[in-house]
Amino acid sequence: MAGGYLCRPAIILFLVAEPELKSPTSQYFQVIKVATAMIILWLLFFFILGTAIGSFINVVADRLPAGKSIISPPSHCPKCHYRLSAKDNIPIFSYLWLRGHCRNCGATIPMRLFLMELGMGLLFTFLYWHFGFIWELAFVAFYCCIFVILAVTDLEHGVLPNKIVYTGIAIAFVLAALGSLFGFEPHYITDLGFKWWAVNAVIGGAIFFGFLFIIVVASRGGMGWGDVKLAGLVGLVTGFPLVFVAMFLAFVGGGLIAGIFLLLKVKKRKDAIPFGPFISLAAMATLFWGKDILGFFLGG
Ligand SMILES: [Zn+2]
Hints:
With 300 residues, the protein is mainly α. The protein is 68% helix and 0% strand. It has two domains: 1-134, no CATH class; 158-300, no CATH class. It is globular and about 70 Å long.
């Protein structure tokens, strides 16, 4: 994640600098001041961008499982069909301003809309902080959006829409093929000493897809074909050998939560806990820290 080092040091250096370096007359202070201001502006930019994208994800996650168009009609209250004006559509602020109620009929606006906007804002800020300006930033950000949509639709409706999964698979495959052809490959592949992104992607996809395929056929229930297709997508995106990190995190996370729910008697043994959110979260964590987690297990 070499790119991340581009944006973190300036702020950290400033915080730990010797008092005389912080003196406004030092040249060091002037340089750091400008660099810090730039970074804060970019962090802010990514936060605002994230909240806007979160707002869009809310629309997708609400309309896609219901088979409605994402583009039309424009945003409206689901109860009274009051059409939202621009000032009702500002991410985060509108929800707070309206205190979670429709301006027209007073119906409760789901808290998820607010949490998604805030969460995506924080996620995008983190992505910039973590990766800095390298091309993988766009790649990882795009896949985070896909995984967040799938986690939400699976949690709320128990579906992983094919439209999203297939779009993700197509883009992952085309990108990996182009990357191999033109010689650009993500850090998390090349840093591990591997080449040929497309080959890694296909092997990764086949491993996770095949593994869940066998589980679904053998267990008949619990997991569905949607999970198998999502696993294929995650394998394509993380590639070999990081797909093993994603699988590990998904099963450990899923197992832990299922165990806690059973202990707390929130769910009974035969209730199905959706697995899609765990696969999605595991995929995101693997894109952020997969290389470090793999290194930890291999003792490197
Ligand atoms: Zn309303």
